[in-house]
Specification:
The protein is an alpha+beta fold. The protein has three helices and eight strands, in the order αββββββββαα. Helix 2 packs antiparallel against helix 3.
Length: about 280
């Protein structure tokens, strides 16, 4: 009799353990399914470029922000939002653009977070050599933020840049809507400004090199003064030092000559661009 009770207790315990194992297995499957659902949902949201941040997490893109679009590195150089008129304009440029950038095409899209639903209008203007202006008009009456996505058509590496605008961070600014002509001239002005900055940088390098040359010449003078009190062996060592310094002066002088030639070339390029601007304004 005791043996039968013992067997029944063991059977009951085995039955209970089997139920618990199945329950834990079902729980594990449920958690795995839930995790899969969450990860898939976020992947889909990111794939479609949907906002996943809260309004508190969103920060407006700042002037000077850089991002990659296709094969080019671009910089946000202008951002204006007129909250009263419901308009916004943004300018981006590739500071290292070449003639090959003329063949590139950029497409832009805009999406809103917390908007009242009115349809806005977006237009993309192309300037010269990697310069673009995005105009957004008819902004919704209410919106928390919006994002502009920029992508190069037909790029081998389809990377996109984004410009984020948070309503609570923006100050209303008045501005004129861009035109094809104004964007083209602005792109040429941008090229001029880049070249002028490059000239300033080279001029500073030339002045720094000249100062360095003078310091090295003084060093040679000090070595030569010491040579009057040196032995023949010491004089040979000093002559070797003088030769090293003299060679370095020659290299720096050649570098300055190269920089001066580059400045002349940049000034000629600026003159040509300004002439192009004058012809465009006629």
């Amino acid at each position: 009799m005791d043996q039968k009770k013992k067997n029944r207790l063991e059977q009951l315990r085995d039955w209970w353990e089997t139920i618990q194992i199945k329950r834990r297995r079902h729980q594990s499957l449920w958690y795995l399914g839930y995790a899969f659902f969450v990860i898939t949902s976020y992947a889909v949201m990111l794939g479609f470029g949907l906002f996943v941040e809260s309004n508190d997490d969103l920060s407006s893109s700042e002037i000077g922000q850089t991002f990659t679009i296709g094969s080019g590195q671009y910089e946000l150089i202008e951002k204006k939002v007129n909250l009263k008129k419901g308009e916004a304009v943004f300018a981006i440029a590739n500071p290292k653009a070449t003639v090959s950038d003329l063949a590139k095409e950029i497409k832009a899209t805009v999406e809103f977070l917390g908007s009242s639903g009115e349809k806005s209008h977006l237009k993309l203007y192309s300037g010269d050599k990697g310069y673009y202006v995005v105009s957004v008009t008819s902004l919704p009456e209410k919106w928390k933020a919006f994002r502009i996505s920029l992508e190069e058509k037909g790029a081998e590496e389809p990377t996109s840049g984004t410009i984020v605008v948070s309503n609570k961070e923006e100050k209303s600014t008045s501005f004129d809507q861009p035109t094809e002509e104004s964007v083209f001239i602005a792109s040429l002005d941008y090229q001029v400004s880049l070249k002028e900055k490059d000239i300033t940088k080279k001029e500073k390098s030339i002045q720094k090199n000249k100062q360095s040359i003078e310091e090295r010449k003084e060093k040679i003078g000090l070595i030569e003064e010491e040579m009057a009190y040196q032995t023949e062996t010491e004089q040979k060592q000093s002559e070797g030092s003088i030769k090293q310094v003299t060679d370095s002066i020659a290299q720096t002088t050649d570098e300055n000559a190269r920089l001066e030639r580059e400045i002349i070339e940049l000034n000629e390029q600026i003159s040509k661009i300004k002439l192009r601007i004058q012809d465009s304004e006629k």
